[in-house]
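Sat 14:20. Reprocessing the chain from the morning session after the first attempt stalled halfway. Input below, unchanged.
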Amino acid sequence: MKKIIKISRVLFLVSLVLVLGACGNEQSTQTNAGKAEALTEKAKNEENVKGIVKAIKQKDIRYKLFITYEGAIWAVGTTAARNGDYGFDQPHVATSTVAFAVQNKLNSEQETAIVELVIRGKDKEGNRVTEPQGDMAGDVRKYYPEAFNENGIPYYGADVDYATLSNVKVVNSEKKGYQKITADVTIHLHMTDGTVKTRTYPTSSIPESTNTAISNEDKQAALHAEFMNQPLPPDDGSVKK
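Finished this time. Tokens:
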């Protein structure tokens, strides 16, 4: 009788283990299925994001900056017009965003996103890399009154030089189905005495998902400017202090 009871207990325990194991396997299968589903769900702009991140994570890429006729700081796209067309295609010295995109086989949407990362920097206090039409309120130039006047025009010998990107990350964006690139953009300037200054801002961009080739006209302008890789002369509006 005792043997029968022991055998029954053993069979009960074995059955219990098998049932629990089956439940565990089912839960595991469901969990894994959920994970697989999450991993296979691609963002609409994932391919563009991957290409941008791979390109901008290269070390010491310098995106050439200039001051527009309207007084805003901008990234050189094809050429900077200042008594002639100045182009830049040396990534570790100075590069236009279009030249950089062409070198890295990026499309027009990816090039636009790089411009946004360079220009849209904004800190917690609302201070920006640049404001349109030389508005110095919140502009990086406001920190250097010895180099730029109240309208954002550089004093003779001073200027903005280039921007660098660091701390590049990919996160989910507020735009459903899209990824966002975040980074820190550092603006490099020089003062009237040649002293180099830098200021860093958080920045971000949500690249588009489309794939538009950079036009041949833009490629030509970016890579065959009248003056390639030459220092920009002082801005036409420069004034002596």
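The chain is about 30% helix and 25% strand.
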